[in-house]
Design a protein that fits this description.
Number of strands: 2
CATH topology: Farnesyl Diphosphate Synthase
Structural class: mainly alpha
Strand content: under 5%
Largest sheet: 2 strands, antiparallel
Radius of gyration: 20 Å
Number of helices: 14
Distance between the termini: 21 Å
Number of domains: 1
Helix content: over 70%
CATH class: Mainly Alpha
Order of helices and strands: HHHHEEHHHHHHHHHH
């Protein structure tokens, strides 16, 4: 990870002082860096890490960072990981251009080194992430999400990137197509579990999670606990809750009403059960690989995704 950080910083460098200043700000406020870890551990699970593995991790992180910068513009968000977002400090126009720059750096990193297989895997993830976001926006207008649509959204929006981390890791060490697909399936299961965990934070009362409760409701996002609760509600309850989400989502008392409804309807237990099923699915894929240090670490990382507090 130390070696990766210096390579990642180098991959962002620009001769434009303003760009350098902004990318330096971004790097200093990095998150958990789970995605590079998934790349490296997948590479180690399937072979011997090499320069291509580092480039795969940098490509994923450049892409991920670009999407975060763009997301903050789309969501009109002034905060990211407890700090001011790029658009809050430098305005939307600059933030969009910085996101574009980071995307182009990722593309060039692959093209310049002939990593076309990695580029194909990651480009597919970008397409799916965009489709997932747009599908979510479309469905938020009508609030008519069924469970299968919800899973389609999170598979594209969140899981596709973690799936591509694991596929890229395997590909970077020369794995065959069957192994790459196996690692992609592993990453997809982890990614879905990761998103369900994020959904559950919305219903927590623990302030240490670092995410205000009810935020998904305020943004009219239909998450698994809410979908399950609505599917098992009476017609009157359903109409009342959908009305709150649509028209009173900025009223803390009404949002608290929705949270209580979901908790009382068993929505939390249902989502936790589903999350644990995806964890098992991921761990079952790992069982197909011989025991080594990377396999143990990946298993621990899967459990961390489920048990994390924020």
């Amino acid at each position: 990870m130390t070696e990766f950080e210096s390579r990642f910083r180098d991959s962002m460098k620009s001769s434009v002082p303003l760009l350098d200043k902004i990318t330096h700000y971004i790097v200093k406020r990095k998150g958990k860096q789970l995605r590079p870890m998934f790349v490296f551990l997948s590479a180690k699970l399937c072979g011997t890490m090499n320069d291509s593995s580092y480039r795969a991790a940098a490509l994923i992180e450049l892409l991920h960072t670009a999407t975060l910068v763009h997301d903050d513009v789309v969501d009109d968000s002034n905060e990211r990981r407890g700090f001011f977002s790029v658009n809050a400090l430098w305005k939307n126009k600059i933030a969009v251009l910085v996101g574009d720059y980071l995307l182009s750096r990722g593309l060039l990193l692959s093209v310049d080194n002939g990593d076309f297989k990695l580029l194909g895997i990651v480009s597919n993830a970008v397409r799916e992430m965009s489709e997932g976001e747009l599908l979510q926006i479309e469905k938020a207008r009508k609030l008519d999400i069924e469970e299968n649509i919800y899973f389609d959204i999170i598979r594209k929006k969140t899981a596709s990137l973690i799936a591509s981390c694991c596929a890229c890791g395997a590909s970077s060490v020369g794995s065959d197509e069957a192994t790459i697909n196996k690692m992609r399936a592993f990453g997809e299961a982890v990614g879905i579990a990761f998103q369900i965990k994020d959904d559950l934070f919305d219903y927590g009362t623990d302030k240490s999670i670092g995410k205000p409760t009810g935020i998904d409701i305020k943004e009219k996002k239909m998450t698994l606990p809410l979908i399950y609760s609505l599917n098992n509600a009476t017609w009157l309850q359903k109409r009342k809750i959908i009305n709150i989400v649509k028209n009173h989502n900025n009223d803390p008392a009404r949002v608290a009403e929705v949270i209580s409804f979901v908790i009382d309807s068993g929505g939390i237990q249902y989502a936790e059960k589903s999350m644990n099923e995806y964890r098992e699915k991921a761990l079952n894929v790992l069982k197909e690989f011989p025991d080594n240090e990377a396999k143990t670490s990946l298993g621990q990382l899967v459990n961390y995704v489920i048990e994390r507090k924020h």
